[in-house]
């Protein structure tokens, strides 16, 4: 209720042109100035270090389509691993998900709603702790969590699971700023979240934790093992048990999942039937749930980019 009320206040301030004041109020820390990069398919606006009281400051990219018009209202898709969505500049091989290209084509063909995309950059050593669903993790036996902590430490990763704070950053700090500065539809039917691998896990978690904010999630190559795949791994089951009691209504929300058959993705197929049964038991149908097997699909931006039109159409189809 508090989030809905706050969004109403945001809309009022935007309509009267008071966005600078509202921006300062929605995030008490000063937000750095935005730099703008011209892309073939629109504008990429970057905040190099978005401040937060919940997580380590990180870069945030906001992609606006070529014909962005501030007099119109746009749906918003929040995405993780923002540095690999639009330009591939952070990857030595220039790999990217080609989000702007795919969204532009679908909008030009009038197949999906007008939207902007907010890409939240990940921080290497903190990525896993930001993206691992926290409440399911906390149900694991202490012996298991201690073991996983040691594994994380040996890999130079942050060992404190912090996805609850990461989601608070998105909900309480980033979303109010985006809604104040850009012409957005702020309601649940027009706010979505997406990611790949661990980003798929935290996208699922975001909708379950904040069903009043997010209307759906796209979870590509969802990393159900949580850590490295291993025999007898209890982690997928704690995710499934959590989802049994936390999935929002199938009448108001949508979930898209997929997995390939090559590379890391080959470990995900064993969970296909259980995931399908779980959603079907909660009233989800093909209109509100997809879990696709992609023959030959691998665990990389190259393969995610080839199929990204599918979740966009599923979540944002006109």
Q: Main β-sheet, in a few words?
A: 9 strands, mixed
Count of helical regions? 12
Structural class, by secondary structure, is alpha/beta
The ordered string of helix (H) and strand (E) elements is: HHEEEEHEHHHHEHEHEHEHH
Unreliable runs: 1-27
Q: Which CATH top level class fits?
A: Alpha Beta
- What is the beta-strand fraction? 15-25%
> Taking strands numbered 1, 2, ... along the chain, how are they ordered across the largest sheet?
1-2-3-5-4-6-7-8-9
Oligomer: single chain
Give the tally of structural domains: 1
Q: What CATH architecture label applies?
A: 3-Layer(aba) Sandwich
| Integer-rounded radius of gyration | 19 Å
Question: So what's the overall shape?
Answer: globular
Distance separating the two termini = 27 Å
Summarize the entry for a quick read.
The chain has 318 residues and is α/β, with parallel strands linked by helices.
What labels describe this entry?
alpha/beta, globular, 318 residues, Rossmann fold
Describe this protein's structure.
The protein is an alpha/beta fold and 318 residues long. The protein has a single domain (2-316), classed as 3-Layer(aba) Sandwich (Rossmann fold). The chain contains twelve helices and nine strands. The chain has a nine-stranded mixed sheet with strand order 1-2-3-5-4-6-7-8-9, sandwiched between helices. A hairpin with a 2-residue loop joins strand 1 (35-39) and strand 2. Helix 1 runs parallel beside helix 7 (163-181) and helix 2 (19-26) runs antiparallel to helix 7. Mean pLDDT is 88; it is low at 1-27.
């Amino acid at each position: 209720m508090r989030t809905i009320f706050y969004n109403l206040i945001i809309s009022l301030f935007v309509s009267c042109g008071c966005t600078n004041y509202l921006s300062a109020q929605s995030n008490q820390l000063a937000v750095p100035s935005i730099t703008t990069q011209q892309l073939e398919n629109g504008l990429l606006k970057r905040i190099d270090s978005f401040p937060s009281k919940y997580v380590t400051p990180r870069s945030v990219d906001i992609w606006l389509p070529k014909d962005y018009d501030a007099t119109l209202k746009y749906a918003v898709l929040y995405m993780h691993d923002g540095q690999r969505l639009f330009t591939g500049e952070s990857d030595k091989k220039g790999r990217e998900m080609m989000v702007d290209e795919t969204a532009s084509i679908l909008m030009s063909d009038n197949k999906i709603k007008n939207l902007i995309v907010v890409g939240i950059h990940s921080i290497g050593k903190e990525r896993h702790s930001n993206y691992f669903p926290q409440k399911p993790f906390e149900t694991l036996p202490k012996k298991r969590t201690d073991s996983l902590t040691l594994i994380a430490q040996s890999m130079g990763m942050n060992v404190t699971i912090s996805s609850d704070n990461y989601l608070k950053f998105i909900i309480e700090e980033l979303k109010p700023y985006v809604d104040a500065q850009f012409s957005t539809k702020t309601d649940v039917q027009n706010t979505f979240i997406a990611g790949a691998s661990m980003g798929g896990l935290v996208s699922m978690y975001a909708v379950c934790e904040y069903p009043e904010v997010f209307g759906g999630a796209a979870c590509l190559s969802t990393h159900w093992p949580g850590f490295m795949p291993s025999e007898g791994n209890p982690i997928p089951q704690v995710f499934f048990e959590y989802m049994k009691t936390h999935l929002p209504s199938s009448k108001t929300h949508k979930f898209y999942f997929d997995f390939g058959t090559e590379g890391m993705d080959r470990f995900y197929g064993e969970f296909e039937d259980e995931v399908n049964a779980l959603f079907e038991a909660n009233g989800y149908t093909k209109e509100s749930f997809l879990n696709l097997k992609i023959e030959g699909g691998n665990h990389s931006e190259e393969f995610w980019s080839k199929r990204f039109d599918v979740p966009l159409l599923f979540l944002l189809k006109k």
